[in-house]
Design brief:
The protein contains 5 helices and 9 strands; from the N terminus they run βααββαβββαβαββ. The chain is of the alpha+beta class. Strands 1-6-7 form a 3-stranded mixed sheet. The relative contact order is 0.11.
Length: about 170
């Protein structure tokens, strides 16, 4: 579970306010995963890990309900703070047999879900991320090798006939 605005809140309003936002989010998550989640822990400045038992249907249902519960803002420091998260779901042993592999696959699903969403891991997540990484490398090599050409189309102010920009 990635807390979307944690860094911005902490950097702007202080770590104490960022942590207060996290505590409010944890309270909402615990309310959804009640009576008690099998494990809820902080695994980074802006990331939480929820471990539970069940199948894909139960896991995605819990993730969806958490995302919905975190849509309303959290009131802190006199502000309405965005509490939305991105949630990635990975299942043991279906998506991996060790914690590192499961975390990597949950992160891949989380990136796919986007802020305010949730997604269950599927193999194409890894393929898509590999393609993006390869494309970034190829683009950097093309820039370094002078292999790109840039074409601009002028934008003209119809009233004056003057060029006012490019696209």
């Amino acid at each position: 579970i990635h807390v979307a605005r944690y860094d911005e809140v902490s950097d702007t309003l202080g770590r104490e306010t960022g942590d207060a936002l996290l505590r409010a989010i944890v309270q909402r998550i615990e309310g959804i995963a009640a009576p008690a989640p099998d494990g809820l822990s902080r695994v980074g400045d802006d990331a939480l890990l929820l471990v539970g038992e069940g199948d894909a249907e139960r896991a995605t249902d819990v993730a969806r309900r958490i995302a919905e519960a975190l849509y309303p803002p959290v009131e802190r420091a006199g502000l309405s703070l965005d509490a939305r998260v991105a949630i990635g779901v990975a299942l043991h042993p279906r998506h991996g047999s060790d914690p590192e592999e499961l975390m990597r696959r949950a992160k891949a699903a989380m990136y796919r879900a986007g802020i305010g969403g949730c997604a269950l891991y599927s193999g194409p997540h890894d393929d898509e991320r590999r393609r993006r990484l390869a494309l970034i490398g190829e683009l950097k090599a093309a820039i370094a090798g002078g292999e790109l050409m840039l074409y601009c189309q002028p934008k003209v102010d119809v009233a004056s006939g003057r060029i006012c920009g490019a696209e």
